[in-house]
Predict the structure.
Amino acid sequence: MKLKIATLFLIYIFSISYVNCQAKIIKTQTPPRPAGQKDVLQLRCEPIPTVRIAFIGLGMRGPGAVERMTHIPGVEIVALCDVLQKNTISANKILAKRGFPAAQEFYGDTTVWRKVTALPNVDLIYVATDWKHHAQIGVQAMKDGKHVAIEVPAAMNLKEIWDLINTSEKTRKHCMQLENCVYDFFELTTLNMVQQGLLGEIIHGEGAYIHGLQPYWDAYWNNWRMDYNRTHRGDVYPTHGLGPVCQAMNIHRGDRLQYLVAVDTKAIGNPEFIKKKTGKEVTGFRNGDHTMTMIATEKQKSILIEHNVTSPRPYSRMYQLTGTKGFANKYPVEGYALEQEMVGNDIAPNHENLTAHKFVPDSIRTRLMKKYRHPIAKDIEDLAKQVGGHGGMDFIMDYRLIYCLQKGLPLDMDVYDLAEWCCIIPLSEISLDNNSSPVQIPDFTRGLWNKLPKLEFAK
C-alpha cells in the first residue's frame, strides 16, 4: 500500500513538473562536438576474423565471461588482469579446462590494467572491475587502439559519459556497455513483437532493479558497492531496467529522453545491515531504500524506473510495455494482453473471451513467443541455455559482440545507449538533492537523435 501511495505521489510530482518544466527544469550542459570529430551511429570497423580479448576484472562477473567466450568460435583469450593473483590463476584454470592455451597474467594493484590496454596483440578489452574504474579503463583502452566492452554501469557521472563518447568518436572504436538484460528471451521476443507492430505504439515503459543484496554485499572487493551507495543518492544501477525499455521505444533512433524526476525513501535497510555487521551506528547514509525515477521523452512517452537493493521484495526487473494495441509484462509473471485483431487467427482461431483486459491464456502466450522469437536468438538459443550466464542471456550478449566484430558490423548497442542508460545515475541524484526537481537529460548524440529511423540489429 505504501509503495502504491509513493508511486501515485511520484506521478503527481511528474505531472506538475511536466506542466511547469520549461520554467523549473534544471539544465544540463551538452559540450559541442570537437572539430574534426563525428558521430559513431552505426559505426562499422574493419572485420576481425579472430578476436583477441583481454579481460580486466576477474572477481564476480569476469570469470563467467571468460568461460562463456571459450564457447564462441574465432576467439583468443590473450590476457587476464585483476588486483588479486588468485583470480588470474583461477581464470587460467578455466582456460585450461576448456582446452585453451594459458593467457598472460597481470595482477598486483589497481593500476596494472594500464599494461593490458597497451598490449599490441589485443583487439577487445572486456572490463568487469568495480564501477569507479569502468570509464577510466574504457577511455584508455580506446586511446590504445582497442574496442572496449564495459560491465554495467559503464559510467557513473556526466564527465565519464562525455569522455567515453568523445573518445569513441575520436578513435572510431566501439564502446559497448555489457547490458545483458536486453538479451533475455522474453525481452528479445517482446522487442520483436514491438517491431512487428503487435503492441501498437509503445507509449509507456517500466523497468527496475529490485534485488536484495544482503547475501552478496561481502563479496564485493574492498566493499566498493556498499561504499558507493553510502556516499551517493539516486538510482545507481538503472541500466537493467532501462535498457530494454529504451530499445522498445527507439531511443536516439527517432525519440530521445528529455527530462527526469526522482523520488526516494529514507535509508533504513543498508544502515541496519552495516550496524549489525560492525556494531556501529551509521549516520549520513545517502541512498534511500527505494528510488523511483520518471522519465519523459521528446515524443511525449513516459518511463518509470525503480531501484531497491535492500528490501525483502522478490527479485524483479519489472519490464512492462504499454502500447496502444497491447501490453507486455515480465514480473512477477510473464504475460501479454492484446486486442483481438492483434492476435491473429493462426494464434487463436475462434478463441472465446480473448480481450485486452487480461492476459491471454498460457497456450496463446506460448504460441506468440514461438512465432515472434527474435532472429538473433533462434539459432543459438539452445547453446545459450546450455552455456548459461543468467539463463543464457549473457552468452547471447557475448556471442553478438564477437559476431559483429568478426563481420565488421555495427554493434547492437552503441556508446549513446551507454550514455543514456547511465546518465540516470548522476541526474537522479541532482533531482533528489533539489527536492525532486525535473532535470534535463542531455542529447548525447548532439542533435542526431532522429538520424536513424528505428533500432535495428545488424545481420
In short: The first strand starts at residue 51 and ends at 56. The two ends are 47 Å apart (CA to CA). The chain has two domains: 51-178, 182-373+414-440.
